[in-house]
C-alpha cells in the first residue's frame, strides 16, 4: 500500500518530483490533514454501494480515501498538468477513472447513466472558492440525479448556504441551496490543513438533496428571478428591488396589489422572507400575470 498523500511530507515529495507549480487561476489548495479527510468521508456517508463523482482531485489526496470507501470513483480535474501525477498516485486503485475536463462542460447525465445506471450519485469536492456557487448550482439546476453534495468551501460561503431569514448571511445562495437540499456544516477547517495555506478559513458542508423541493411553486424560474432581484440591492425594500429589476415585467402598481393580497407591508425586505413566502409571491404574480393576458 502506497503511503497516503495526506502525509504532508508525501505531498511535498510528489509535488517536487513532478515540478508542479500551483495555479492561482484554478484556486489550488491541497488538503494535508487525515482527520479532515476522514470527516469528509463520514459526512458524505460513502459506502461500497456508491458511485462518487469527485470534483477537483488535485494530486489525488481525497481520491485515495474515496476509492477505499466507495464502489467506484470518477475524478474530474481541469488542470492537465495534474493528470500524470494522478496516474501515478492512483495507479493501485482500479475503481478510479480520471477525466481531464471542466466540470461545467461535462455531460453529467451521460456519466450518471454510464457509471450508475442513472441512479442518484454522491458528489464530493474540495472546490476553488471563486467557482463554488456556479458548480453547486450547476449540479442542481441541471437536474442530474444527485443524492448529496459534500464540499470543502470558504467558511463564509458555507455559513451563507445554511443561513435563515433575518441574518446577515441570508441571501440568494441560501434560498437556492435550501430549495434543493438540506445543508449542515460538518466541520470547520483552519488554513494550516492545506498546502499552500489559503488566506481564509474553510468548512465542509454537506447538502442532502431533497427528493422533492420543500415548497411547491408554479414557476421555478420566476421565483429565482424574484429572489435574485430582492437581494441585488439589499438596502432597498423588496418592492423597490422588484420594481427596478430589468428582467421582471411587474410594475409598482401590480406589485403593491399583490403585496396587499398577501397581507405584506410595502416596507418588507427580501431578507425577511422565507423560501415558502417567495414561492407564495411567485405564484401570486403568476396568477395576476395570466389574468391580465
What report would you give on this structure?
The chain has twelve helices and nine strands. The protein has helices at residues 8-18, 34-44, 61-69, 83-89, 108-116, 132-141, 155-162, 172-180, 220-232, 238-243, 252-262, 275-292; strands at 30-31, 51-55, 72-77, 96-100, 121-126, 146-154, 181-189, 194-195, 202-209. The chain has a seven-stranded mixed beta sheet with strand order 4-3-2-5-6-9-7, sandwiched between helices. Strand 5, helix 6 (132-141) and strand 6 (146-154) form a beta-alpha-beta unit. Helix 9 packs across helix 12 and helix 11 (252-262) crosses helix 12 (275-292).
Topology at a glance:
Blueprint: H1 8-18, E1 30-31, H2 34-44, E2 51-55, H3 61-69, E3 72-77, H4 83-89, E4 96-100, H5 108-116, E5 121-126, H6 132-141, E6 146-154, H7 155-162, H8 172-180, E7 181-189, E8 194-195, E9 202-209, H9 220-232, H10 238-243, H11 252-262, H12 275-292
Parallel strand pairs: 2-3, 2-5, 3-4, 5-6
Antiparallel strand pairs: 1-8, 6-9, 7-9
Helix pairs in contact: 6-8, 9-12, 11-12
Q: Any descriptors?
A:
293 residues, seven-stranded mixed β-sheet, alpha/beta, 42% helix
